[in-house]
Amino acid sequence: GKDVIIFGLSDQSYDTVLIIKGPKRNIKLSIKERLFGFWIDTKKFTFENIPSIFFIASTTPINDILDEKTIRQKGLNFNNFDNYILNNDNIKDTRMFENNLYEWDRNLIRKQKENDLYKEYNLEIIDEKLFQTRVFFPSNTVPGNYNINIYQIKNKKIINESTKKIIIQKKGMGNKIYNFAQDNSFLYGILCIIFAIITGAAAAAAFRRL
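RE: above sequence
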């Protein structure tokens, strides 16, 4: 849940594009169908190695300054997930899956945008010398290394390209809990169940007294 300001030197003769990605993770999507009066997940598959966060900022709309081929090769928009490995072993009708791949992509992007994990920002030019943008990392941001790619563009060609990194870590008790959950997932799950039972019982007792 933090805002981060990113800035750098600007050149008026270039357009600037800034991309933030990372870390990669697997994301599951499913289709619910109504069976016997209940909504059940009947079809699902996994996008593998998808950026958990994907932020885009540019001084000019990217489609106006680069051709579609370059945008696709460099991964400068959200619509490139058909390049990633898909695990659709549990989908028997492969033809149905392929025909609806665009719809799966669109729903994945929509889901990530709703969670503020995929977002477009304005890249401002200050005093004709600096570019600057303010991005928001939501509270459910995955700790790890985030790549920042900066592109300088002229005449629909990438002239310069550089890469920086942001390291995001949890601090204090939140960091200890996160590391414990990652290193001891089974034990963490049991403790969560015990804690839920205790708090549920305490709440029930309190309501009975009221």
